[in-house]
Amino acid sequence: MASEPVVESPGERPGDPDGFQRLWTPHRMVYIGGENKPTDSTAKQCPFCRAPQRDDADGLIVHRGVAAYVVMNLYPYSPGHLLVCPYRHVSDYTDATPAEVAEIAGLTRRAMRVVRSVSHPAGFNLGINQGDVAGAGIAAHLHQHVVPRWPGDANFLPVVAQTKAVPQLLDDTRALLAQAWDSA
Fold this sequence. Notes:
The chain has helices at 28-32, 47-50, 56-59, 98-119, 157-161, 170-180; strands at residues 61-64, 68-72, 82-86, 123-127, 144-149.
């Protein structure tokens, strides 16, 4: 008696279609695994101390000020997610100098104007996470988040898959924001 071929149901083998659309973001494993996270809190290992030593495109820097600068977030929550950092390796907002505080505030306002002119978000999340327990990915160096938001941009992906869909490459976003910086 001849055996009938075994027909597997969709989704039984890896890679088989199963009705789900998949958004593969393997680059996020670097962040999840902590590959780019400094092993200590020294300025030598700090990505926010190293970025200004590179050229703007390589360092993802959008604008350089006197006491602080604006850089793309390497692991953005949304397109145009910027960080405003003092050049000085300081971890606590209360230890920032008056000049650093003033420039961080001014650059945050300017960053919002620039992002609005380039990508027209409906709103922003602004924030400084102080310490590991507060969610700071790099707790050793103060940085202000400027996160543009659009209706419907928060969906199930971060909850169920620890994944965020970012539809624009960092270098493309950086170039648009840097080009618009002086005119916004």
